[in-house]
Amino acid sequence: MKQYIDLEDINNVDQLIQQAIQLKSDPFAHKQLGKNKSIGMLFFNSSLRTRLSTQKAAQNLGMNIMVMNLNSEGWGLEFEDGSVMNAGTAEHIKEAAAVISQYVDVIALRAFPSLTDKVKDEEEQIIRSFQKYASVPVVNMESATAHPLQALTDAITIQEFKQKERPKVVLTWAPHPRALPHAVPNSFAKMMQMIDVDFCITHPEGYELNPKITGNTPIVYNQNEALKDADFVYAKNWSSYQDYGQIKSTDESWMLTLDKIKAAKFMHCLPVRRNMIVADEILDSDQSLVIQQANNRTYAAQAVLKEILED
Ligand code: CP
């Protein structure tokens, strides 16, 4: 693997899932692979799981780790080509990415969208600029439109817990007080089209995701109908894609309860707002996989870093 910017960078998804499951059973089997190699983990936004699990994954492979919160600790970065830098930004991405590439062997990056400028967000300016000007592989730790490490984690978790060959998986929108990005539902929807599951998406009208990403996935506007006979229910809030970044509904009736999901397993990327997205009764039950899911973040990251180091 040359980089992990998005799910298209995966050569064989089934093999990568199996690799992650193998690493989970023997995390230190490749401790020599990362010897004398470094990863630079650069954050423009907050993180708990991505930061700690990717760090743990790199440690399991014997890598050295440097972490930097670029917004608060670095110089203000300029991304526009040819700009006259007479305002707030102090360092151009051309120098920054080239310099960082001399210190580390892999750059991992988190940079959320503005949710105000759809065109710019879809250009993925920050991660694509690093990709362009860095001379080492770039790993996406959640960008404006994609969270491929999370999606790989989700596929691993479904593989581990599925009780039938082709389980029914439902991605459901759920209410949230703030406008949230599309990265997680985008990548989850993409991933579900890459593995063998019966997949549908449910959300209130007006919350359609980018149709280029959802493709032929059935969209069901009636949540109860969509949830019928589900094996896995993945809840996530996202803001409107059409009316970009807007909150169109906070309809509390879309919150997940045990009565709605019946015997299905519950999934969420975390962090999750209790009794807003999902009721306590689910999160505190054996049907919730959120903790196991978060554990798999380590092995998803480790499988990706292993492939990059081997290439
Ligand atoms: N799911 C996830 O990416 O969690 P963090 O934002 O805490 O990293």
List keywords for this structure.
311 residues; alpha/beta; Rossmann fold; 2 domains; 5-stranded parallel β-sheet; 4-stranded parallel β-sheet; 13 helices; 38% helix; 14% strand; binds phosphoric acid mono(formamide)ester
CATH superfamily placement of the largest domain: Aspartate/ornithine carbamoyltransferase
Residue share in β-strands: 5-15%
- C-alpha end-to-end distance: 6 Å
**Main sheet attributes: strand count, strand direction, barrel closure:** 5 strands, parallel
Q: Report the total helices.
A: 13
How are the strands ordered across the major sheet?
Answer: 9-8-7-10-11
Number of domains: 2
Summing up helix and strand content along with how strands pair, one would put the structural category as alpha/beta
Q: Tell me, briefly, the overall form.
A: globular
